[in-house]
C-alpha cells in the first residue's frame, strides 16, 4: 500500500470497543499502584482516559512515581494474560469488521488508545485481533502526550511516514472522550455503545455515527468508510 494516493486511517479504541478484558486492566492498575506506593489505590475514572491520566489521578497529580507505576502496570497486566484470555472476549462483530476493513484497498487500521503500546498488543493478541492492525501507525498511552486528541496527530504522522498523507481519519470508540478527541483533531467519530455509555448518551456527543455494536457488518463498514 506504500505510495497509495488514498489512505483512510481507521483508529480503534480498545477497551469497550474491541474487547472486554473482564476488568483485568483495572485490577492490574490497582496492583501496580499498591506495589509502588504501598497502599491501595482510590477509585478513579478510567473510561476514555490515557494510562498517564489514570496514573496521575491515582498519584494525586504527582509525576514522581509515574515511570515506576507504568512499568509495573505492564508487568502486572502481562501476568494476567491467561485470565484475560479465559475470562475476557472480543466484542460482537469485531473480528468480522476488522477482517473486512483490512481487506479493502486504501484502508489502514491501527489504534488510538490510552493503553501503553505493550498492553494494547497484549489485550488484542489475547483474542487474535492483532493480525488485522498495523501497530506501527497507532497512538498510545505510552507516547509522550496525555491528551487523546494529541495522539491523533501522532498516528497521522506515523501513517504519513509509512504510507501517505491520510485522505481521512476516523476514530471508533465507546466514550464521549473518544468523540471529543476526534472532534478536536478534525477527524470523524464513530461511537459504539458497547462500553459504559448508552446509545442515547453517545448520540448527544455529536458523533458522525452511533452503533449499538459492530455485529451488523454492512452498517459498521458504511459508518467507518463514509468519508471515502
What do these coordinates show?
With 228 residues, the chain is of the alpha/beta class. It has two domains: 151 residues, HAD superfamily/HAD-like (Rossmann fold, 3-Layer(aba) Sandwich); 63 residues. Helix content is 43%, strand content 12%. The strands form two sheets. Strands 4-1-5-6-7 form a five-stranded parallel sheet, sandwiched between helices. The protein has a two-stranded antiparallel sheet with strand order 2-3. α1 crosses α3 and α7 packs across α8. The two termini are 16 Å apart. The relative contact order is 0.19. The mean pLDDT is 91.
Average pLDDT over all residues: 91
Strand content range: 5-15%
Q: Structural class, judged by helices and strands?
A: alpha/beta
Q: What strand order characterises the main sheet?
A: 4-1-5-6-7
Q: What fold name stands as the CATH topology of the largest domain?
A: Rossmann fold
- Poorly predicted runs are none
- Major pleated sheet: 5 strands, parallel
Question: What overall geometry do the principal axes of the alpha carbons give?
Answer: globular
CATH class of the largest domain: Alpha Beta
Descriptive keywords:
about 45% helix, two-stranded antiparallel sheet, 7 strands, alpha/beta, Rossmann fold, about 230 residues, 2 domains
Task: Please give a quick description of this structure.
This protein has ten helices and seven strands. By secondary structure, it is an alpha/beta fold.
Secondary structure layout:
Elements: E1 8-12, E2 19-20, H1 24-37, H2 51-58, H3 66-79, H4 81-87, E3 89-90, H5 94-102, E4 107-111, H6 117-125, H7 148-162, E5 168-173, H8 176-185, E6 188-192, H9 199-203, E7 209-211, H10 217-224
Parallel strand pairs: 1-4, 1-5, 5-6, 6-7
Antiparallel strand pairs: 2-3
Helix pairs in contact: 1-3, 7-8
